[in-house]
Design brief:
Number of strands: 0
Helix content: 55-70%
Order of helices and strands: HHHHHH
CATH class of one domain: Mainly Alpha
Structural class: mainly alpha
Shape: elongated
Largest sheet: none
CATH architecture of one domain: Up-down Bundle
Radius of gyration: 20 Å
Length: 201
């Protein structure tokens, strides 16, 4: 058996530069997302709502899979990225739904880090970056036919969608719309809440 033949047979166990780069990028984003999420509560004193907790849990899960996978099985970055796809897309779905509630005026949320957008908006940006990285790494790091890779990724993304749907459906109901305007001193905007709408004459 020639060296080239042996190399071809073991390609699935060799590091893939594209997948390894995607894994490294996703790991950096997951660290930033996790640290930023925790700092919003512990540093800025904001109170996480149920949807915020789901997103925090998912980004932490992604970080755990990426970090442990890179430490234990760093020769298979494509597989590590693939295992990160379901929680990443689940978090992306929750973040998108959360931001939709903000954009449609159903919720109002406090400003996030550096005053750039709201917490849901920054969370959505983090999950979009994660989704691009881990999905790209799973695609280019798997030694399968394009059809097989597409089917595998489709199943992984659908699993994430099921997880997202379960989280949204089982989340606590939204609080009622306040009958009076919030007191800016006693009721500062430190969590996601229903906005006050003045009655129209």
């Amino acid at each position: 058996m020639t060296d080239s033949t042996s190399l071809e047979q073991n390609t699935g166990h060799l590091p893939n530069n594209c997948a390894a780069s995607c894994l490294a990028a996703a790991l950096v984003v997951a660290v930033i997302g996790t640290a930023g999420s925790v700092y919003l509560s512990m540093g800025l004193g904001l109170k996480a709502c149920p949807l915020c907790f789901y997103q925090r849990s998912f980004v932490m899960a992604v970080l755990a899979v990426l970090a442990l996978g890179r430490f234990v099985e760093r020769s298979r970055p494509g597989l590590i990225c693939l295992l990160s796809v379901p929680p990443t897309w689940a978090g992306l779905g929750v973040a998108a739904f959360h931001e939709y509630l903000v954009l449609t005026g159903v919720l109002e949320c406090p400003a996030a880090l550096f005053g750039i957008g709201t917490a849901p908006a920054q969370s959505l940006a983090v999950f979009i970056a994660l989704a691009v990285a881990v999905t790209g790494g799973a695609w280019c790091g798997r030694q399968e036919s394009p059809r097989q890779r597409a089917c595998t990724l489709f199943v992984a993304v659908m699993l994430g969608a099921v997880m997202e749907g379960a989280c949204v459906k089982s989340s606590l109901p939204l609080p009622p719309v306040p009958a009076a305007a919030y007191d800016p001193v006693k009721q500062p905007l430190d969590t996601c809440r229903r906005p006050f709408s003045a009655p129209k004459n």
